[in-house]
Amino acid sequence: MNINVDIEIDRSLEVVWKDICDIEHSAQMISAITAFKLLEAPDDEGSLVGLKWTETRKVFGKEAEETLWITDYQPLSYYKTRAQNHGAIYISTMSVKELGENTLLTMSFESEANSLMVKVVSAVMGIFVKRAMVKMLDKDLHDIKQFVESNAEEVRRN
Questions:
Q1: What 3-state DSSP class applies to 26?
Q2: Which of 4, 110, 113, 138 could form a disulfide with 118 if both were Cys (CB 3.0 to 4.6 A apart)?
Q3: Which residues constitute the domain of residue 47?
Q4: Cα atoms in the 13 Å half-sphere on the side-chain side of 103
Q5: pLDDT digits (tens, 9 = 90+) for 42-89
């Protein structure tokens, strides 16, 4: 399954990038995230690659815990995260692009089943799951937009 969702944010690319890279404060930015635990910091201070964390979020009305890590990072452009769970691999990409004085924030999601059972369930339930995922990603992007366009520094201090 491949999904791409985007939103225009009324802030500069640098401001949006700074906020989306502040992963340790993602629970303050995205309402579905209820808990965050840092597991590993990146080896290179100038990169996010190697950052690993566990987040708990509300998914389909229930709390789910996932361990994610950053596998690829291009400053002021994108970063990719990976998670593995329930017989599938999940790759998410957050990318930014200038739109004049604003920024286009895009969230891409890919999933790949690595077991026969997950492949069968995905084939049967795929369209329903995809609709739900689009809705969830869209909500995350709207939360990020609201956070970034508000006084994000003030929110972090509280």
A1: helix
A2: 113
A3: 2-157
A4: 25
A5: 988 889 999 999 999 988 788 999 999 999 999 999 999 999 987 789
